[in-house]
Amino acid sequence: MTFVEYQKSIDDDRPPSRLSETLISLWWDKKGDWEKAHAIAQEIPTVQGSAVHAYLHREEGVLWNADYWYSRADRERPNISLEAEWKLLVEEMLSSL
């Protein structure tokens, strides 16, 4: 799946079935359901799951919690827009499919 295909799928009612849990979390976030996105992300016990979890807490504005999850993902909080970070995360997760 390409980034453009992924982005277009956000107009659908449900995420595509072949997505990873990290991509499903990011999908729901872009759809406007932060709670659902967070519920999924907090159950993903991987570095990528921690990166998505960190992004979600950054988006929420709880930076101390975001920084905890960035450290779990062995990353630093980026100095870019949330939109740019979302795109980078989606591209990273798509490359892992």
Summary keywords:
mainly alpha, single chain, 97 residues, globular
Topology record:
Elements: H1 3-9, H2 21-31, H3 34-41, H4 47-60, H5 63-72, H6 82-95
Helix pairs in contact: 2-3, 2-4, 3-4, 4-5, 4-6
Characterize this entry briefly.
The chain is mainly alpha-helical and 97 residues long. It has helices at 3-9, 21-31, 34-41, 47-60, 63-72, 82-95. The model has no long low-confidence stretch (mean pLDDT 97).
Return the string of H and E elements: HHHHHH
Strand proportion: under 5%
Mean pLDDT: 97
Measured on Cα atoms, how large is the radius of gyration?
12 Å
Low-confidence stretches: none
Helix content: 55-70%
| Structure class | mainly alpha
What's the β-strand tally?
0
Counted by DSSP, the helix tally is 6
Largest sheet: none
Distance between the termini: 8 Å
Instruction: Tell the overall outline.
Output: globular
